[in-house]
Design goal:
eight-stranded antiparallel β-sheet; single chain; 434 residues; Immunoglobulin-like; mainly beta
């Protein structure tokens, strides 16, 4: 089914409008979904968090008791060539990533049957810069004669094996749990969010990457949201089991910055998500001069919103995005280098009923002079239509009470340059109404 775009919104190629809208409005990937708030910031030198051993962290060690450990992790660039630990409980279980620059990276899950006997499950792939979801699962007594071990990455089962039978299960280790390193060794460079330990099998095959913070249930042994105030070094466990992590060597919570590494000849990550009012900073980590230039310059189609100076190696360029949209950009010196910044509008609250009054916000501060914001709506079972079109100045939000019954609504926004008609892509979100 096509997306009906009102006449007032039709500027430029309709096919391009439809494509950009469908791409951004689709179910977000892990990278688009997170972070959900503050994150655990790790410097890749010696930062980590830990907690002494206790019974709630001894998972999969009893006959029939399972284990799932999972988290979102952020890779700042693809120049890393180290082993980075996500979870480390010595002589019990370790989840890590081996990064390489000239060959595929390895996701690795090591698990012990005794203090000295272990097995390893791993697989190789190219892990790009940006956010990823990873989980390791130990299915104790998958059959009467076999356990099953699996790794899940970004919505897919990445590796599995049933070539094990641990009786009664994983080794009950008394070692402390370390998050983000092995007590300072093999540290993770980047960020962590939503770390959860469960006494059940959470994933069994292809899955939808979680798009909201984890919630507790009867199988949750530990859950860290890392939503404490910035610079906190104590990280609460929301499971109720009291597994408070303590930051070591400078590990602390922080508000994640949106950064793009410029290398020869690519932007890493190629697509980033920034909040309304968020700043994206480009850093030239390559050996050549590059630019970050909004589409709309250099005979490209777009709103021509920003154009950095030539960036020599080591130089940076920040830009703040006050209006929602999907902003394509390129390097003027090397036009095949392309990227995008996705800035989604917001709803407050994020769900409700047919009597809820929502505030839909598509910009912060004001819309830049010479530009207009177009906001469209999709009611349940209906095509996209104009809602708040040709918005300017301080026309940055509006209230909305559902008028199409229950179901999933959608809102999307783009930025348009009034003088040329050059537009960004659409960026939007679903709004569930019960």
């Amino acid at each position: 089914m096509g997306v009906a775009v009102p006449r007032a919104v039709r500027r430029g190629s309709l096919l391009a409008v439809l494509a950009s809208l469908l791409l951004v409005y689709a179910m977000p990937s892990a990278a688009a979904a997170v972070p959900f708030g503050n994150v655990l910031v790790l410097d890749g030198i010696d930062d980590y968090a830990n907690i002494p051993d206790n019974a709630t962290l001894d998972l999969g060690d009893a006959d029939g008791e399972d284990l799932t450990v999972e988290a979102f992790f952020y890779v700042p660039n693809e120049s890393n060539a180290t082993t980075d630990v996500i979870f480390y409980k010595g002589s019990a279980y370790v989840l890590s990533v081996i990064f390489r620059t000239t060959s595929a990276d390895t996701v690795r899950f090591q698990f012990w049957s005794t203090n000295v006997t272990s097995n390893i499950l791993s697989n190789d792939t190219n892990i790009t810069a940006g956010w990823h979801h990873v989980a390791a699962v130990f299915d104790n007594e998958f059959t009467g004669s076999n356990d099953r071990v699996a790794i899940y990455l970004d919505g897919a089962e990445f590796a599995n094996s049933t070539a094990f039978e641990y009786t009664p299960g994983l080794n009950n280790s008394t070692n402390l749990l370390a998050v983000g390193a092995n007590s300072g060794a093999v540290p993770l460079e980047g960020w962590l969010d939503e770390a959860r330990f469960s006494q059940s099998v959470r994933y069994t095959g292809p899955y939808s990457v979680p798009t909201s913070p984890f919630s507790n249930d009867a199988n949750t042994r530990a859950l860290w949201h890392f939503d404490e105030a910035a610079a906190s070094t104590s990280f609460a466990d929301s499971s109720g089991n009291g597994n408070t992590l303590t930051g070591q060597n400078g590990a602390q919570t922080g508000t994640p910055a949106t950064t793009v590494s410029i290398v020869d000849l690519a932007f890493q990550p190629a697509t980033v998500t920034a909040p309304l009012g968020g700043t994206v900073t480009w850093t030239n980590n390559g050996s050549m001069v590059h630019t970050s230039t909004s589409n709309g310059f250099d005979a490209t189609a777009g709103p021509a919103l920003w154009d950095s100076p030539d960036l020599s190696p080591g130089q940076t360029f920040p830009f703040t995005f006050n209006v929602g949209g999907n902003y394509g950009y390129h390097c003027t010196i090397h036009p095949t280098m392309q990227g995008s910044v996705v800035v989604k509008p917001t709803a407050q609250p994020t769900s409700g009923t047919t009597s809820t009054t929502f505030t839909i916000t598509w910009a912060v501060g004001s819309i830049p002079s010479g530009y207009r914001a177009d906001v469209i709506i999709k009611r349940p079972g209906q095509p996209w239509v104009g809602w708040k079109v040709n918005q300017s100045g301080t026309q940055i939000s509006a209230q909305f009470t559902p008028d199409g019954g229950t179901g999933t609504y959608g809102f999307a926004v783009r930025l348009r340059k009034a003088s040329t008609g050059g537009v960004s892509g659409w960026a939007g979100f679903p709004l569930p109404v019960s």
